[in-house]
Amino acid sequence: MPTILGQNQYGKAENRVVKITRDGDTHHIKDLNVSVSLSGDMDEVHYSGSNANVLPTDTTKNTVYAFAKEYGIESAEQFGIHLARHFVTSQEPIHRARIRIEEYAWERIETSDANSKFIGADEVKHSFVRQGQEVRTAQITFDGENWEVVTGLKDLTVMNSTNSEFWGYVKDKYTTLQEAYDRILATQVHARWRYNWTSDEDRLPNWEKSYAQARKHLLQAFAETYSLSLQQTLYQMGSRVINSRSEVDEVRLSLPNKHHFLVDLEPFGLKNENEVYFAADRPYGLIEATVLRDGVEPRIPVDMTNL
């Protein structure tokens, strides 16, 4: 039985690029992991091995580094837009480009006022420490006419040490969990949000400000919600972003519940008054949902594993 070629794409994955911007003695870092995926008129390379329409993946890698120099890296989103536009408009066989970016944040190390006299420098503004485990993400897709920008973050660990309950749930013969009226609520936030900017005719969002504000609203909603379930907290987090940022139409959240269980100290003659907990890393509850602006159709994949 004959076969036909289905969906296909190719590119260079995980190009690590670090851009240092020197503003006099003050330096700024952008640290990105950029993956390029291209698709279009690529049937022949699969059927016969002809590379006539193939832009080498090594070239896509070189383009990432060259663009870091030519355009700088104002934001992950804007850098991805430059790349996607270039691949689609400069190569006729390429009809669609998808750029995925992870950004790793660095925090400037603040030195003591007196430190400079010991090292012979007037002022130190070029030393940094890598921030935690949180990673910023961006996916930019362009088909020659329309844009789709999905930004987000992953591995942002948060905790409320009170103002969380869990009770009134279904119980059957396998239920052993005790109802909790004051518990720790902790999770590792994985969030993606989709912008309603889709055309060059529309006004560009301020990518850096928008990311910072969306992140702020996620955190504030987590902190300010008196939670009766992690689902309720998730909805409040997504809603806060939608209601606060007009440029965002869709938020997808995946929140693994980082369970903390009270330790039984009675065998030692001690009373545990919500003070000592056992932190279990697995198994864990996994709460996921999409929050949408009314009237908007969802586009962010339900499974965000590779987004």
- Beta fraction: 25-35%
Give the integer mean of the pLDDT values: 91
General shape: globular
| Strand line-up across the major sheet | 1-2-3-4-5-6-7-10
Please identify the structural class as seen in this structure: alpha+beta
Runs in which pLDDT lies below 50 for 5 or more consecutive residues are: 116-121
Q: Helix-strand pattern, N to C?
A: EEHHHEHEEEHHEEEE
| Residue share in helix | 10-25%
Provide an overview of this structure.
There is one protein chain. By secondary structure, this protein is α+β, with helices and mostly antiparallel strands. The chain is built from 6 helices and 10 strands, in the order ββαααβαβββααββββ. It has helices spanning 43-47, 57-70, 76-90, 116-119, 207-224, 230-244, and strands at residues 15-23, 26-40, 94-108, 128-142, 147-160, 185-195, 248-257, 260-262, 277-279, 285-292. An 8-stranded antiparallel β-sheet has the order 1-2-3-4-5-6-7-10. A two-stranded antiparallel ribbon has the order 8-9. A hairpin with a 2-residue loop joins strand 1 and strand 2. It starts with 14 loop residues before the first strand and ends in a 15-residue tail after the last strand. Residues 116-121 have low confidence and may be disordered.
